[in-house]
Predict the structure of AraC family transcriptional regulator.
Amino acid sequence: MYEWNEMVQLMVDWVEANITESSSLLKMSEQLGYSPYYCSKQFNQLTGMTLRDYVWTRRISRAALELRDTDQRVLDIAVKYGFSSQEAFTRAFNKAFQLTPAAYQKAPRPIPLAIRQEVFSPYHYLIKERDKMSKVHLQPAEIKVEFIPAHKFIGIWDISVTNYGDFWGNGHSCDEVSGTLESMSNHTLPGQLGQTAGWFYQNGQKGYLYGIPVSTEYDGPIPAGMECRDIPESEYLVFFHPPFDYLKDNGAVMGTVEDVAWSFDPKSLGYQWDELIKQDYQRHFPEGYGYAVLRPVKRL
């Protein structure tokens, strides 16, 4: 039932808000109005891990980002995230990522960070609110031109699928891929959002991609199972909808944008599509950016 998904999502939200606190299952269950046993059972059922393990992996992952992005002492970060000592933190970090915190802070590299769990989706929201839903009034997709400089793209290109759901259902681990790319977020090409999906074309066939755009100067390691490709500079037509409520309007917004993106004639703006060796991008960050499809073009 969707109620379980919503409850577990509230648990995830609570963990994220209290990630550095010495919080207890009892305190969380009291705030949510469920017994500790029920909370633990439903969390494990929907996420495949115990609540204790989830908290541990999120703490160690958040700590890793602070090691990467700040010059704080390892001990201070360890204490902040609830570890009893630097030695305990080092053991936990080494268990998770096969290197010590000190080594990672000195030379960060791609590691599989644990990502935030999302178990309450627009589908569950629709079921919950189906008797209350009113007609959604969306604004038309905006169309603008954006220049993206030459860059590298690190990720996975899968020619056998053409959409987000099929991509993750085709043997790619969302948690592992997204977590590893999150550890590389400090290398994101300036002006871009970070983890990006999209489409590419190979011998006339359309495929789906997922990865992160980085500078042409990036010469660091490429995560196992991924590759790095050079993407030339280009202008893009951007079909865009501003920030929206993910649970309420995600499907409608994506449909509105994509209907325009895939039917638009660029000649009306003096362009033609240029997708032979370039790739389309899909930006999806509902509350902070919105949703957009970017298609490369060149002037007529």
The chain has two domains: 1-106, 142-299.
